[in-house]
């Protein structure tokens, strides 16, 4: 059954039936019952198209004088083609055949296959007045025709095209529907994202202005509105949501927007008169709109009515939706409404009721992957058939980003409609299960792997039109996961990393946001995949002379991005997920092989994969590489000081500007014969640290934590002193020595340009921090009674701070400014001088690979003593652990108090500070010395080498006395 109304035509039912079989109502609505079933109706501006029976197509032109035609319905000669859909423009039409072939209908009624689309399976077509669109089942969108207003979406100044061209800017977006208006175009994605382009003179693109667009632009005002259908008129657009709301935008000249006005709208606005009616279908004519409310069996119309196209018997325009006066025999079962030009129609279609009510007859999206498809792939079948058919289907699926991105969406509670930069709209458990299934059949998994690497990844562009185009980067790690279980996928991971790095900054920001909000287990999988490949290549570089840096670097760069994102996640991975362990052999090997030394230096850009031991090894290796052999000479880099005036002597020397900070430092104490093999320098910095901590006024120890921080003194002399303290600390770090000054982590954060936080105040001044924390928890009355303002120590924290009271509403800001004042504003000049000095004394910028806590431990040393560890690392010469002398030594050592044990470390190594890793990282050799007068001798130490010379004492008491005396009073350093 067909009902139609609008532009005057001969009352012959378009030639579909005999004239006397057509019935008309008083309101001008005609009805007829064709002999063959109507499959589709398309109403263009001057062209009408019908599909009848088993795919037969007929067209009719309305504007007789313009084309010199009879205006009669003409059946098209389609040979063997059976037509599924037809879409009519002003004078041309496109036809979609079963099987996906597209034909173009010219003015002469001749239909020709569009050869440029012959290798594509097209699932949707759409016509504007003079432009055309076609969507293939692999998600590719093609446009052709006039481009006077950018309606082809191919870019500014792009000429009109008579041949279909691929619209690459929407690559990867799984499109559900395409729609063309007069000179504008719309597309709708599976998850409800809407893109528009073309003519925008009346705001019909919904972008908030009237500027034409020459490329697709996302209609952000429709984000998360659950859009399911779009219809375009001459210069207005209607949008239908899943909940049955209708929104219109564009020209309101004839009331076609339904807002009870003739005003244009530049952003989609809900048609209030249809609110609550739950519209199931919409259709736009040239300047009028139809809406079907299925529950009440009513069609509403609004807009231009001078040709009777509103179906109310009037020839006037209508600004609000009013019911169409349909004949009594009208039934809403399985109908489709359509409109175009000045005509309206509804017909009984061949779709089922579910499709009709959803208004999605033409909304066939790209092919997607589901359980049923995967089951068919892995089921047992004839190998020859499998090879010819299944492989082809797998390749088609996995070579299309649109198909992959349209698969695995989370339809529970319509979550995929909530797709945003924080939510991908995916149910990642689905690809995990799908790839695990595929892994059961190696042919399937191998074909998927090859297709993704050779076809899919190379096709990915640098720009993503929206979140949905980036889903592929979340799905593929699940493929890598199953490949890794089979010892495969290494090269695919490298290719995926390279594709990610090709993304432009805006797309990368969106992907980073998706990663930040990814569920924990899937984020962990993502990190594990890239981490395992990094570890694989670094391991290979330790066993071969090949430099795999080209392969490993893109993976490292992606892993670095993931590491940075990890700190922003609500639930974070531990540091261990990023560290690549057991690299010491790697460093040993790389420093010997010249052709891969560059890789060692490159690793410095990725410190997040290195633990502190590896960073130290890397620092030492690269430090040696930058030092010229001549700089190892003792001459010109030896600092001679007096123990009693060590600080003054050092500053005087540094002021001469003769010291080469890049050269290894050698120290000589006045009136002492020791040669510095490393231990004299260690003692030198220990003495300097103690001297500065004791006598300097420019740094002060906190009363409640004992940690040192800058004093308030900001004089020029104090700044100079701080500069040289910074130089000394830098020199200590550069020469791998400890400073006996306990700075807080906040200082090292500032050196690394990291802002200190409230937690740093808790470390430096726990009492002060506790008071502030209590202040944040107080009731409003208590806060007001404290009469605080935005000043601290007489300084305003913000402009006019003395006149701004601290309240419950702004107290967090006050605390934040308080912390900023302590660590930044109050010591700005002091820190600047220290920082400049530290950089002078430590000229090798690689120190920045360390974290703040690591810098602190390397400069101050560890102070956690597990004394049993020392006994485990000792080696023996001329004796063994069972000897009485050695047994007596350890008995005496463990009898000593903590202070004397530390003195033993100073006696043996020049300092009691421990390297990272504690006592287990020390090396101590006890050498038994045989003397005739052994009981008269003291133990001695070769501190440069960690060797203790122990005379063969006759009894434990003598050993005790001599050892305690030696470590308390003797200073024997630098022996050869």
Automatic annotation (TrEMBL):
<feature type="repeat" description="RCC1">
    <location>
        <begin position="139"/>
        <end position="191"/>
    </location>
</feature>
<dbReference type="GO" id="GO:0016567">
    <property type="term" value="P:protein ubiquitination"/>
</dbReference>
<keyword id="KW-0833">Ubl conjugation pathway</keyword>
<dbReference type="GO" id="GO:0061630">
    <property type="term" value="F:ubiquitin protein ligase activity"/>
</dbReference>
<protein>
    <recommendedName>
        <fullName>HECT domain-containing protein</fullName>
    </recommendedName>
</protein>
<keyword id="KW-0677">Repeat</keyword>
<dbReference type="Pfam" id="PF00632">
    <property type="entry name" value="HECT"/>
</dbReference>
<dbReference type="InterPro" id="IPR058923">
    <property type="entry name" value="RCC1-like_dom"/>
</dbReference>
<dbReference type="InterPro" id="IPR035983">
    <property type="entry name" value="Hect_E3_ubiquitin_ligase"/>
</dbReference>
<dbReference type="GO" id="GO:0006511">
    <property type="term" value="P:ubiquitin-dependent protein catabolic process"/>
</dbReference>
<dbReference type="InterPro" id="IPR009091">
    <property type="entry name" value="RCC1/BLIP-II"/>
</dbReference>
<feature type="repeat" description="RCC1">
    <location>
        <begin position="89"/>
        <end position="138"/>
    </location>
</feature>
<dbReference type="Pfam" id="PF25390">
    <property type="entry name" value="WD40_RLD"/>
</dbReference>
<feature type="active site" description="Glycyl thioester intermediate">
    <location>
        <position position="944"/>
    </location>
</feature>
<feature type="domain" description="HECT">
    <location>
        <begin position="657"/>
        <end position="976"/>
    </location>
</feature>
<feature type="repeat" description="RCC1">
    <location>
        <begin position="244"/>
        <end position="295"/>
    </location>
</feature>
<dbReference type="InterPro" id="IPR000569">
    <property type="entry name" value="HECT_dom"/>
</dbReference>
<feature type="repeat" description="RCC1">
    <location>
        <begin position="192"/>
        <end position="243"/>
    </location>
</feature>
<keyword id="KW-0808">Transferase</keyword>
<dbReference type="GO" id="GO:0005737">
    <property type="term" value="C:cytoplasm"/>
</dbReference>
<dbReference type="InterPro" id="IPR051709">
    <property type="entry name" value="Ub-ligase/GTPase-reg"/>
</dbReference>
<feature type="repeat" description="RCC1">
    <location>
        <begin position="297"/>
        <end position="350"/>
    </location>
</feature>
<dbReference type="InterPro" id="IPR000408">
    <property type="entry name" value="Reg_chr_condens"/>
</dbReference>
